[in-house]
Amino acid sequence: RIDGARLWKSLMDLARIGGTPKGGVCRIALTDLDRQGRDLFVQWAREAGCSIRIDAIGNIFARRAGADDSLAPVMTGSHIDTQPTGGKFDGNYGVMAGLEVVRTLNAAGVRTRAPIEVAVWTNEEGSRFVPVMMGSGVFAGAFTLEHALAQRDAQGVSVAEALAAIGYAGQAGAAPAVGAYFEAHIEQGPVLENHERVIGVVQAALGQRWYDVTVQGMEAHAGPTPMELRQDALLAASALVAEVNRIALDRLPHARGTVGSLEVHPNSRNVIPGRVKLSVDLRAPDDAQLLDMDAALRAACARIAAERGLAIGVEQVVYFPPQPFTPHLVEAVRANAADLGYSCMDVVSGAGHDAVYVARVAPAAMVFVPCADGISHNEIEDADPAHLEAGCNVLLRAMLASAGV
Amino acid sequence: RIDGARLWKSLMDLARIGGTPKGGVCRIALTDLDRQGRDLFVQWAREAGCSIRIDAIGNIFARRAGADDSLAPVMTGSHIDTQPTGGKFDGNYGVMAGLEVVRTLNAAGVRTRAPIEVAVWTNEEGSRFVPVMMGSGVFAGAFTLEHALAQRDAQGVSVAEALAAIGYAGQAGAAPAVGAYFEAHIEQGPVLENHERVIGVVQAALGQRWYDVTVQGMEAHAGPTPMELRQDALLAASALVAEVNRIALDRLPHARGTVGSLEVHPNSRNVIPGRVKLSVDLRAPDDAQLLDMDAALRAACARIAAERGLAIGVEQVVYFPPQPFTPHLVEAVRANAADLGYSCMDVVSGAGHDAVYVARVAPAAMVFVPCADGISHNEIEDADPAHLEAGCNVLLRAMLASAGV
Ligand SMILES: NC(=O)NCCC(=O)O
Ligand SMILES: NC(=O)NCCC(=O)O
Question: Coiled-coil segments, which residues (chains A, B) (predicted)?
Fold first, then answer.
């Protein structure tokens, strides 16, 4: 069994890097705070006897040697980048749980047959750079390294430049084989809490399509310009925000539609907005339904543009289909949770995770634990130490079963 | 008659300070570019024999002595601050037209009985600091000097600090009496052009109410958070944008409603927005109607907040009632336009102008000229040199009639 207090202390120590007054964490991908977090992980992993490898997109792999190092490693991990107003657990839990597995094996003097690796994937959150889940996406070949390195943030800094600046641009080369991949994560939604279960056995993750939408109207004076002559880009964008919500509401219970980011130009009180840029995030459990939502979004844009006499451009920037996890690993999670006496239930992940991409190239599964009020992507994100300990015990057992002793 | 080519050259020379690639001007109030524009005006006014006075809110008064300097001056002027994406004519025309009147009187060797003054009012646009029309508002006692100096921009810089930084914090003291005030301005709307008239005889300006609105929802993850459990601040704000438009559409032809500025927090693609701040700008020709729009706005905020289970705060930051101009000066504008053979018509100003506040403490009137396609608060703002010349000739005649020769 793992040491719950040690796991909690690692989480709290890591949370100090980028900690916010409201108790959250702002440690955005490939910033200097991200570097500090990475450096701390690398130090801890070395102290636990691991060797470190960095790949060309900045993913970190900490390896604990196995009895037979020619075997593909059994891997776990997640990410330590956060949302601008993120919490202490999203991603960080999966990485610290992996480290805790290594420390537990060290303390017990257990030698596994296959090596164990703990991965820290680059830019999972996608708030600074799209595509989201960038490091695992490159690892799994979902898009190319060159595509990822060329992406730029809102200030025009590229991923390649940001990686070089923090000293985490590692070696290029083909991704090595993975024997099995497990990722522990907080649920980030209310289902486990509502059902009073400790372990979520994750069956699959929703598919996602993300878009950049630009509404091009005409700037004019808010006073003398008659209402009926306006091409108000914000008025059109507002209609689109309502439509994105409607597209998901029409496809309950599992579809989601969100406009998370919206920028107005020139954003002056007495100027009719001339241009609005906004993001759209659509999710569904079924790929055909997700495509249908794509069509509904495009139709809504075309209708609003025609009604209001302005132009709306739609560019898809992220797409991945719903991803089922590997049945025998999912079963291993369920069986070990039951064996340990934890209440559990099957769940579907509404969020994307690095495991979604890794599942394209290796057997993969996930372990969810509850978070307070189902709240995540918020500084008040919280989790029960006992639940985090339980999830880490399930992770340990499932990894040992895959790696062999 | 004034020299149209000289007037045009002054406008083009001034437009170089803060000129944008699209042919507009970005010379925001109390920035270093504003200082450069002010310095150029002061230099030109001194070269034209004027004395310069700066008051405590940074208004500049350039005075051409009269035969009887004990008489209250006949004043003209406007502003040279611009919108972030502003044009070459809004405000600048009124100041350069005043300078052209002085230069014309100099060239003709005319001595007026009352002195002539050209005013450059501080922060008319209101895009960096509210209240809008700040310099003329302090001059006319619409609000106090202390209130104005304490206002801060989005970066937290106060008006007092910004004035000191550009060296235009002048002498405090009671505003001197003004014999008559005339302001020449582009119309900033389509009415004169649609009616093919050269001079607009401005009867009054719409009243205005501006607000800061804050929608407080709850940040959460865009994936696992069920649609029905969300408190999406942007979804609520979008409903309010539509309502602001509706409030004006229900009160045509003269009411206006605009959301020009909107900021989303944390503005991340996969985070349900937790907070949105937006501006609301309501205008009407009748004070009772404007109050009715205020009530409609507050009711819409309360209804949306209740429907969506979140909080909406409304703070009024600008209010002035509809302002009629002084009948005998309005008549002077009309009579001189007719005398000069220019086509003219009565208009109402949809924009606020410094004349609106000056009209509270002195007889005041305005002269409008058309602008291309009625577009203003846009870098493509344009005007016909012949129209600008015509407006300046009307200004010259009206000022001479008031000042006496
Ligand atoms: N787990 C997580 O927050 N991932 C970010 C990607 C997403 O928005 O689903
Ligand atoms: N003339 C002008 O653009 N004034 C700004 C104040 C307003 O928005 O009416």
Answer: none
